[in-house]
Automatic annotation (TrEMBL):
Cytochrome oxidase subunit I profile domain location: 106-551
SUPFAM superfamilies hit by this protein: Cytochrome c oxidase subunit I-like
Transmembrane segments: 6-26, 94-122, 142-164, 176-197, 209-233, 240-259, 279-299, 311-328, 340-362, 383-400, 420-438, 458-478, 506-527
Gene3D superfamilies: Cytochrome c oxidase-like, subunit I domain
Key words, A-Z: Electron transport, Membrane, Respiratory chain, Transmembrane, Transmembrane helix, Transport
Protein name: Cbb3-type cytochrome c oxidase subunit I
Listed Pfam families: COX1
Highest rank taxon of the organism: Bacteria
Length: 551
């Protein structure tokens, strides 16, 4: 048995043992329902009080009124000691968080234009053919590297660094190291994108950055992970809220995954493909997904001022995600030259993923019950709710797509690309946008200058990705059917996709426009544009304001 199969089998056996330990802990009552744990993100007097820093004072009052029923909670006495800890945490993280978010915005713009260019090239193949770096194979890969590592990874790191000290009631230990880490990671991304544009790539999807450059990223990660662990060790809280579980685990997972995925000269041939997709789906399932789910578990209850409905379900979601996601990578190789049991194992695990997804969805539905209308008032809540719903949609779609009968049609088609954007954009990116809208007023000590732009961004992104997803799903399915029909010439499967590829460019253009609005707004905020209002929590001005509006 070769090493790739051994490591997969080892991971499988480990996950089954883990599952039994989990069942045992349930039977022992170690996971009793714990409403107190669900409330740790609130200081005394905060439950019942809505909170969205992206809203100005009057708009926040309207939202509080719309949250009816708990209105008297808005006047409850606040726990000053806890709020002061939070202010200290926010101060310690402000600079590194700003750095990560600024990098994320930069790469979002680079990645967006690279994506739109790749999209247009698929229906206008004679456009921009004179420069090698602008050919589809390279610009598509630049798109992937810029959005997955430049945008999502930077935004995720910024969010983790902002959130964990808050949840642990301590300052960020080793902030300077995280910044050094950020500088190294972004040097690696920039050099990687340069190398890919010049035609130098390791040739494995999501692992294209040459390993000689990837070393920078890996060392950068170490400089970010160690201060986070140090902060965890020096925490002032007894209980670790579920978002801490998701985010710390995700940081450890991605560091290990990247290390193994990039080890040079170890995997070759079919083994290399197996390792490639072990990494490929784990970067989605054990990095982007837990970070985003952990974010929803914090921001959504915080915005609506109500603890998560069932804390146990959130823990069940965490452990089942940890047990099942690790083995799903094989579903990218269905029909490939890999052992049948390997793909069958991954299909079974892909279906098991409905457990964490349903646990999450029921929990969020219960938490939001009677409060969904608050999305009309809160822009941050809108992004979070949309992202949460799309987590459910992309995962259920993914589980079905892993079935052999469905994959036979969809594999090698644009259907997969539609699913990829439902997950990486409609779910992950929308959650990150929401988190940035929530965090930045506290990071920059300034309000979002033009709140209407947040609404404009939301609709451009939501409508854009809907057009993108629906168009390519239909086009991809028709393409698959045409390819499977031996009586039809291959060119039919190309022609049938053309109108849908054009729709993708239309949807993609709206998304890009949304990103320009978002990044322009971010710049305007950083440059202190717009009127100075007193509605948002401006912690540096004086503590009273902070206490008056809650955190
Ligand atoms: C239960 C959860 C999920 C399952 C079972 C699943 C399953 C699948 C399957 C079967 C494919 C197609 C493989 C192929 O035919 O080549 C796929 C592709 C993909 N999925 Fe998922 N998916 C899930 C959730 C997600 C989420 C949450 C994201 C985003 C964060 C995501 C991102 C992607 C991407 C980017 C691809 C394209 C990979 C490529 O480059 O070929 N998936 N997924
Ligand atoms: C932050 C935003 C975005 C993220 C996270 C993202 C993510 C991804 C991912 C994961 C893939 C690989 C899919 C696969 O191979 O199955 C991909 C490919 C692609 N994306 Fe995006 N994307 C984003 C925005 C956009 C935009 C705005 C466009 C513009 C139309 C776009 C167009 C494309 C194209 C053309 C491909 C290549 C598809 C192919 O190989 O056939 N993306 N993107």
């Amino acid at each position: 048995m070769d090493s790739a199969i051994l490591s997969l089998l080892g991971a499988f056996v480990l996950s089954i043992i883990g599952l039994f330990v989990f069942i045992w802990s349930l039977r022992k009552g170690l996971l009793v329902e714990n409403p107190a744990a669900a409330s740790v993100i609130f200081a005394r007097g905060e439950i019942g009080r809505v909170d969205d820093p992206a809203l100005a004072g009057a708009a926040r009052d309207s939202m509080q009124q719309a949250a009816a029923g708990d209105a008297q909670a808005a006047h409850a006495a606040a726990d000053e000691a806890e709020l002061r800890d939070r202010i200290a945490s926010d101060r310690s993280t402000a600079f590194p968080v700003f750095m990560f978010v600024a990098f994320a915005c930069f790469w979002l713009i680079v990645g967006s234009f690279a994506g739109l260019t790749s999209s247009i090239k698929l229906h206008e193949p004679d456009w921009l053919t004179n420069q090698a770096w602008l050919t589809f194979g390279r610009i598509r890969t630049v798109h992937l590297t810029a959005v997955l590592y430049g945008w999502i990874t930077n935004a995720a790191l910024g969010m983790i660094i902002w959130l964990l000290p808050r949840l642990l009631r301590t300052r960020l230990h080793g902030a300077v190291w995280t910044m050094l880490g950020g500088a190294l990671i972004n040097t690696g991304i920039a050099a990687g994108i340069g190398a890919i544009s010049a035609g130098w790539s390791d040739g494995m999807e999501y692992l294209e950055i040459p390993w000689q450059i990837a070393v920078f990223i890996l060392v950068g990660f170490v400089f970010v992970v160690l201060p986070v662990l140090f902060t965890l060790v020096n925490r002032k809280v007894e209980h670790l809220y579920v978002s801490v579980w998701y985010m710390v685990a995700a940081l450890l997972w991605i560091s290990l995954l990247f290390l193994v995925g990039k080890l040079p000269g170890v995997h070759t041939g079919v083994q290399q493909a197996t390792t490639n997709w072990w990494y490929g789906h784990n970067v989605l399932g054990l990095w982007f997904t837990p970070v985003s789910v952990g974010a929803i578990y914090y921001f959504l209850p915080k915005i609506i001022g109500r603890p998560v409905r069932s804390y146990n379900l959130s823990i069940l979601g965490f452990w089942t995600l940890a047990f099942f996601y690790g083995q799903v990578g094989g579903h990218h190789l269905i029909g490939g030259p890999v052992p049948g049991w390997l793909t069958t194992l991954s299909i079974v695990q892909s279906l098991m993923m409905v457990i964490p997804v349903i646990a999450f969805s029921i929990n969020m539905g219960g938490t939001l019950k009677g409060r969904m209308h608050l999305a009309r008032y809160s822009p941050t809540l809108r992004f979070m709710m949309f992202g949460g719903l799309m987590y459910f949609a992309s995962s259920v779609q993914g589980s079905l797509e892993a079935l052999r009968s469905v994959n036979q049609v969809t594999h090698f088609t644009h259907f997969t690309v539609a699913h990829a954007h439902l997950g990486a954009y409609a779910f992950v990116s929308m959650v990150l946008f929401g988190a940035i809208y929530f965090m930045m007023p506290r990071v920059l000590n300034w309000e979002w200058p033009y709140p209407k732009l947040i609404t404009l961004h939301f609709w451009l992104a939501a409508i854009g990705v809907t057009i993108y997803f629906v168009g390519l799903t239909i086009g991809g399915w028709l393409q698959g059917l045409a390819m499977l029909d031996a009586a039809r010439p291959f060119i039919d499967s190309v022609n049938v996709t053309l109108p849908w590829l054009k729709w993708r460019s239309v949807g993609g253009s709206l998304m890009v426009l949304g990103h320009l609005v978002f990044v322009g707004h971010f710049l305007a905020m950083a440059l202190r544009f717009g009127p100075t209002r007193t509605g948002a929590a401006l912690f540096a001005h004086n503590n009273e304001l902070e206490l008056a509006y809650g955190k």
